[in-house]
Specification:
Blueprint (H helix, E strand, L loop, with lengths): L19 H6 L3 H25 L4 H13 L12 E2 L5 H11 L1 H20 L11 H23 L8 H6 L1 H9 L2 H19 L12 H15 L12 H4 L5 H4 L5 H26 L9 H17 L6 E2 L1 H9 L6 H16 L9 H15 L2 H10 L1 H16 L2 H20 L2 E6 L6 E9 L4 H9 L7 E11 L1 H15 L7 E3 L2
Parallel strand pairs: 4-5, 5-6
Antiparallel strand pairs: 1-2, 3-4
Helix pairs in contact: 2-3, 2-10, 2-15, 2-16, 2-17, 3-14, 3-16, 4-5, 5-13, 5-14, 6-17, 6-19, 6-20, 9-10, 9-17, 13-14, 13-15, 18-19, 19-20, 21-22
Length: 506
């Protein structure tokens, strides 16, 4: 008879992290745990920097990052994509807070989340893939330009003008004012030093690069500011609970404002498009399960709904954090959930650390992030191969800088639709004149109002004293405007006593 096994003396008890049972239940726990720490270190300075640049308490950026991990991270959709506050929404959030106040921001974010939930339930997520890439890249380029210009003022410790054009036009004056101010020079030096560290970080030894570049740059800037007692502004700390501002009933009254509804529409469009485009990009980085777009849109909606209820920043999926997650070896959604846990522990236990971070360092991080939003290589390639798309990208970006975010995106979408309609309305008119008998005119393709001038010019050039046979059987589409115009032309042509035009309708 065999002796019973003494479980307590087993080298790997059942509850041990290295036990076979634990490994079967969580086969990728070690990889996901390590990846979550990397994502946390990447997300921490970005969450704080986006919040400060958006004109809200720094802790609200952490709150959105926490919600992105603990709420959106748990939900199905994209298994390795990480959500949180994004640089792409910074300009829009800043304008909304300046226009309506911080309490109304929660209403905007809450409404954005509810609309995203509805769109996901109606299975509209997949249709965001149909948005013109030129418009999306133009949108991001415009955001990047405004973000860079605005953060240069923050790097100098000065207040930025309200409009995008004002920010760009004021840069020469900013440099002139900074040249005669010791404080501004110190602040700018720290900001540009942060950018230099970010640019050079990839060339440092591999052991150093185990620390994410953004965190390393902020840490170095903080140390320099403390050691040399630089006269630069630092992050204001209110505490996690003190920064939360759930929207009150009076804030919901602003929903009667038509302009606010336009702002919400802009939030929905930009947040949804950026998240789903990011999902497509992340899918190309790994061989795991593909993104379910409608479920991912609902996951983003749930996260924004909770963020709005807490009065925090809007969230999107963020390609920087997501790619770091994949490159760190994450296998399941556990890594993004755990990154939310680490953000929560930091915000709860170490919020005072934020007070040492210099604002110019955060401005430098966002200038670097804004630069990466501008697809310079993509524009050059697009200009060579698809000049019309490149023009849409450039006009969208310029419109965002010159007007505002919402109207700039609408201009880009309008141009994309007009270009597509023009290209889709190909029409061919073939004239056969044998010298005797009727002139034969064959129309083929798509006859839309956009091509009416070309069609009518050719038909009106036909001899008035000859009968005409108009064959429309080759048309795939004939819109009402073209049909009416052709009927009117036929009446005019026949009014001179010529034999009536014979029309072979499709």
């Amino acid at each position: 008879m065999s002796n019973p096994v003494n479980i307590s003396n087993s080298p790997n008890p059942p509850n041990s992290p290295n036990s076979p049972n634990r490994r079967m239940k969580f086969p990728h726990l070690r990889q996901d745990f390590a990846a979550s720490l990397v994502v946390f270190l990447v997300a921490l300075p970005l969450c704080v920097g986006v919040a400060v640049a958006s004109g809200v308490p720094a802790e609200l950026g952490l709150v959105t990052g926490i919600v992105g991990g603990l709420v959106t991270g748990f939900l199905p959709g994209s298994s390795l994509q990480v959500s949180g506050p994004a640089a792409g929404l910074t300009v829009l959030v800043f304008e909304a807070v300046r226009e309506y106040g911080l309490p109304v921001l929660g209403v905007i974010v809450l409404a954005t989340g509810l609309i995203q939930l509805l769109m996901g339930a109606l299975k509209l997520g997949r249709y965001f893939r149909a948005i013109s890439v030129a418009v999306v890249e133009g949108m991001l380029a415009g955001i990047g330009l405004v973000l860079i210009a605005g953060q240069l003022y923050s790097a100098a410790g000065m207040e930025a003008p309200a409009s995008g054009l004002g920010k760009l036009a004021g840069l020469p004056g900013l440099l002139a004012d900074s040249a005669v101010s010791t404080e501004a020079l110190a602040s700018l030096g720290l900001g540009f030093g942060t950018i230099a560290v970010l640019v050079l970080w990839k060339h440092l030894p591999k052991q150093v690069r185990t620390v994410p570049g953004a965190l390393g740059a902020v840490a170095l800037a903080t140390i320099v500011a403390l050691v040399f007692s630089l006269p630069v502004a630092t992050v204001e700390v209110q505490g996690l609970l003190g920064s939360l501002q759930p929207p009150g009933l009076d804030a919901f009254g602003e929903l009667a404002n038509v302009a606010l509804l336009g702002t919400i529409a802009a939030f929905v469009l930009i947040a949804s498009a950026e998240s789903l485009f990011s999902a497509a990009a992340v899918d190309r980085l790994h061989d795991g399960p593909r993104t379910e777009y409608d479920k991912e849109l609902m996951a983003q909606g749930a996260g924004n709904t909770v963020s709005g209820m807490l009065g925090a920043l809007p969230m999107t999926a963020v390609i920087v954090r997501s790619s770091a997650n994949v490159q760190a070896g994450a296998k399941t959604k556990a890594s993004r959930v755990l990154h939310g846990v680490w953000l929560l522990l930091f915000a709860a236990l170490l919020p005072s650390v934020l007070a040492y971070i210099p604002l110019p360092a955060l401005a430098g991080i966002l200038v670097h992030a804004g630069w990466k939003l501008i697809p310079l290589r993509g524009i050059a390639s697009m200009w060579r191969e698809h000049r019309g798309e490149a023009l849409i990208l450039i006009i969208t970006a310029v419109s965002i800088v010159a007007v505002n975010m919402f109207e700039g995106v609408l201009i880009g979408l309008g141009l994309a639709v007009a270009k597509t309609a023009w290209e889709a309305s190909h029409i061919k008119l073939e004239i056969i004149d044998k010298g005797a008998g009727p002139v034969q005119a064959y129309l083929s393709g798509n006859a839309t109002f956009l091509r009416l001038p070309k069609i009518l010019d050719s038909l009106e050039a036909l001899p008035q004293d000859r009968p005409v046979e108009l064959d429309l059987s080759g048309l795939h589409h004939l819109d009402h405007a073209c049909r009416t115009a052709l009927e009117n032309w036929a009446e005019r042509h026949s009014a001179t006593g010529t034999e009536p035009v014979r029309v072979n309708a499709p």
